[in-house]
Amino acid sequence: MIPGQFDYVRPGSLGETLQILKDREGEAKLLSGGYSLIPLIKLRLAQPALLVDLRDVSGLDGIAETDDFLVIGARATHRQIHENGIVQARYPGIVDLAGVIGDPQVRNWGTIGGSVAHADPASDWPALLLATGATIVCTSQTGERTIAAREFFLDTFTTAIEPTEVLTQIRIPRRPKQAGGAYEKLERKIGDFATVGVAVMVRLDATGTITSVGIGVTGVAETPFAATDGEAVLAGNAPSDALFRQAGAAVAAQSRPGGDVRGPVEYKRAMAAEMTLRALRTAVQRALAYA
Ligand SMILES: Cc1cc2nc3c(=O)[nH]c(=O)nc-3n(C[C@H](O)[C@H](O)[C@H](O)COP(=O)(O)OP(=O)(O)OC[C@H]3O[C@@H](n4cnc5c(N)ncnc54)[C@H](O)[C@@H]3O)c2cc1C
What we know:
binds flavin-adenine dinucleotide
């Protein structure tokens, strides 16, 4: 199909971008990697009057650790994040995830900001942001706004971003000692979206008890969600396979999958439980090794 007509601009700064979004409120769409937006435009499922290409806007693509956060710029590609030295050294759950998004071409072009703003119900990043208690930074002409991941994903392809805002950064809490994360994705074949994906972040105390835990789940509801029932099963308890299975059952019960080409409802629920078990096993091992 041939896309509808649209104007195209390539602003040179964030300030210029924000002015365009204000002037053309509701008509403009930001273009980052284009790996979700361009197919939608080609199918005429999206028909923006104006495309605002972010490629010349500097300051949106760094990856750095501060005292409190791992800060990832919105235009960092999946590949840049996967290959980043800090991420490789200290954030194995992010390494798990960034390496299984789509195929190499998708990872070369697709960006974390585009993925999070797009909010596909089966996209991978939201699960991790929910598990780690990340915040999403959105910038408009009136300044910066930080939104907790748990308040950001409102519905299918719907987030808390306003039309006059640019998603500028993702802030993931810095990994403390005795904490570990993991991401388990079930996909039908390499390059596919998740049938189900489960991200967990576990923190242990000196006795090995789970002091805090986050679980983010994708692919099995109308939007990625925090599996609060599974978290409640785990917090304050000693890790064990029996406990992880109980948490997995709670995650499965909280999920709301639809039956489709990736499988029927009961299969997806069973896989949500299994991916939770696997992610928890790995995360706890990593937490024990990060003393
Ligand atoms: C074949 C294929 C396989 C894929 N497999 C997977 C997969 O396994 N897992 C997965 O998670 N994803 C997958 N994707 C999606 C891919 O990760 C996309 O890169 C991602 O969803 C969108 O990122 P983008 O940078 O391409 O954003 P774009 O397509 O440029 O934009 C997507 C949306 O976000 C908005 N947007 C972009 N940047 C910003 C910003 N900074 N602030 C506010 N709004 C913004 C745009 O206006 C648009 O609405 C796949 C895509 C393809 C084509």
